[in-house]
Each structure stands twice: as C-alpha cells, then as structure tokens.
Amino acid sequence: MEPTGEMTAASPGPSYDTDRVWTLPNVLSMLRLAGVPLLLWLVLGPHADVIAVLVLIVAGFTDWLDGFLARRWNQRSRLGQMLDPVADRFYILATLIGLAVREIIPWWLVIILVARDVVIALLVPILETRGYSSLPVHFLGKAATFNLLYAFPLVLLGAGDSTFAMAARVLGWAFAIWGTGLYWWAGCLYIRQTYTLVRTLPRVERHPQHRLEAR
C-alpha cells in the first residue's frame, strides 16, 4: 500500500495473521470501545473534564499498544482491523456531542465532521460492487484523526478563564481547524479512489475480500 493512499486494480487485499477474536490486541480494542460511554458521561454528567481527558489519553495509548502487540505477536485480525477505526470515530463523536451540548463548540462543526463520515459510508455500496468494503488508510486520514483526537481534549480543558485554559483553547482550536480540513481532504481522496475503482475494475458478484478501513 502506498502512503499516498493511491489504489489500482492490482491492489492486494490486507494480510491477516489470525481470525481469532480473543487476542490481547482485540481485548484492548474492546476495552477502548467500552470507554466511550464513560467518556460521554464524564463530560455531560459531573463535568469531570480532567478525568475525561485522562480517559482519552488511556484510549490513545491502548490504540497504539494494541496495534504494536498485534504486529509484534503476529495477531493481526479482521476484527482488530474493524475495531480500531470504529473506536477512533466513536471517541471523536462522543467528544463532539459532549462539547456541543455544553456549548463549548458550535453544532455546525459537529455537522461538518459527521457529514464527512456519512459521505464515506455512502461509498461502501459502490465499493462492494468492485469487491471492496472500504478504502486504504493513508497518511492524510491518519493525520486528520491524530489532529482531531488531540484537538477536542484541549478544547475541553480550555473551558475556563485561567492562563492554562486559554493556552489549551488556542492550541485545541488550531488542531481542530487543521484536523477538520485534513479530514475532508482525505474524504475527497477516498471519493476519487472510489471513482477510479469503478472505472478500472469490473463489477463482481461476490462478498468483498478487500477489507481495509478508511480513517
């Protein structure tokens, strides 16, 4: 897979080491996903912002750790490939909703970011006609996710009048602006890749074999 995310008809499918469900990397991914409702409750319930940010930090660490262990122990799995990007999206969405409900960020920003994921979801039926279920991750998608995962914890910590809060707010919004731009840029590349696949590959009547998640 090229780092630019370009894809041709000869693109190979992903390699998996195992179809097992109960591996340590998968358990870490499941635990990370289970932390999403806890995060939303912390933000909307007791407004325990510092603890909510700690949850996000732990989630980010386990995101790195499960990928590292999966590669190191040859435990890459189909489930793991699915859970990682899903967990990232749910953490971003939960943080967005929490911040919007508390009027820390505007709802139009939530709509812009959610709309991008809706557009990507609408590409799936088209991709499946060419034997794909989703698109290759490339560096723009990863960079966008990185920016957004850092942006909103900082914006959350910036909900105050102290010097630290002001600095966190400025830095958080900088990450948010860059992350939103990159998120849609990556989305446009996925649209172009889908168009290329439709033009270059014949229609297939089988279950998708190429299962890669676009971030």
TrEMBL record:
<dbReference type="InterPro" id="IPR048254">
    <property type="entry name" value="CDP_ALCOHOL_P_TRANSF_CS"/>
</dbReference>
<dbReference type="InterPro" id="IPR004570">
    <property type="entry name" value="Phosphatidylglycerol_P_synth"/>
</dbReference>
<protein>
    <submittedName>
        <fullName>Cardiolipin synthase</fullName>
        <ecNumber>2.7.8.41</ecNumber>
    </submittedName>
</protein>
<comment type="similarity">
    <text>Belongs to the CDP-alcohol phosphatidyltransferase class-I family.</text>
</comment>
<keyword id="KW-0808">Transferase</keyword>
<keyword id="KW-0594">Phospholipid biosynthesis</keyword>
<keyword id="KW-0444">Lipid biosynthesis</keyword>
<dbReference type="InterPro" id="IPR050324">
    <property type="entry name" value="CDP-alcohol_PTase-I"/>
</dbReference>
<keyword id="KW-0472">Membrane</keyword>
<dbReference type="InterPro" id="IPR000462">
    <property type="entry name" value="CDP-OH_P_trans"/>
</dbReference>
<dbReference type="GO" id="GO:0043337">
    <property type="term" value="F:cardiolipin synthase (CMP-forming)"/>
</dbReference>
<dbReference type="Pfam" id="PF01066">
    <property type="entry name" value="CDP-OH_P_transf"/>
</dbReference>
<feature type="transmembrane region" description="Helical">
    <location>
        <begin position="139"/>
        <end position="159"/>
    </location>
</feature>
<feature type="transmembrane region" description="Helical">
    <location>
        <begin position="171"/>
        <end position="191"/>
    </location>
</feature>
<keyword id="KW-0812">Transmembrane</keyword>
<keyword id="KW-1208">Phospholipid metabolism</keyword>
<dbReference type="InterPro" id="IPR043130">
    <property type="entry name" value="CDP-OH_PTrfase_TM_dom"/>
</dbReference>
<keyword id="KW-1133">Transmembrane helix</keyword>
<keyword id="KW-0443">Lipid metabolism</keyword>
<feature type="transmembrane region" description="Helical">
    <location>
        <begin position="107"/>
        <end position="127"/>
    </location>
</feature>
